[in-house]
Design brief:
mainly alpha; 8 helices; globular
């Protein structure tokens, strides 16, 4: 996802007076800018950075949804609407089968060591932001047995 696309979509949401969409995209933009400043890349915001931040924000909203009391319907609906907007921008993650295939192809020599820590260290550099960390961890655990 390009940072400029987020900015253009926020302007479009503002013109359409779509408050929920505008607020969700605005929170993504601020999170991206904050991360870029923290990493010292304010002038050069990469697509990888934007995708990483979007996934992090998606995880945060999912946690809010999970911890929201069932009787707070309006709050739950608000979180769900935000989640729906963020999902539109989230990069497609690899499925467990695709992760297994990548591990078998590129990391066969490391997996042969059966050292889970060493495998995770090698694999996460390649798959971070492309697949869910829990899925990667689960598959590596299966392969180490």
């Amino acid at each position: 996802m390009q940072f400029e696309t987020l900015q253009k979509d926020m302007i479009a949401a503002m013109k359409a007076k779509d408050k929920v969409r505008k607020e969700a995209i605005s929170s993504l933009i601020s999170a991206v800018k904050k991360t870029a400043i923290d990493e010292g890349t304010r002038d050069n915001i990469t697509e990888e950075l934007v995708n990483r931040v979007i996934l992090k924000e998606m995880k945060t909203v999912q946690e809010q949804l999970d911890s929201c009391p069932a009787d707070r319907i309006e709050l739950r609906d608000s979180y769900q609407a935000t989640m729906d907007v963020i999902k539109e921008y989230a990069p497609r993650l690899l499925t467990p089968d695709e992760v297994r295939a990548v591990l078998s192809e590129k990391f066969a020599d490391v997996i042969a060591t059966k050292n889970k820590g060493q495998i995770m260290k090698a694999v996460m550099g390649e798959l971070k932001g492309k697949a869910d960390g829990k899925v990667i961890n689960q598959i590596v655990s299966e392969m180490c047995k």
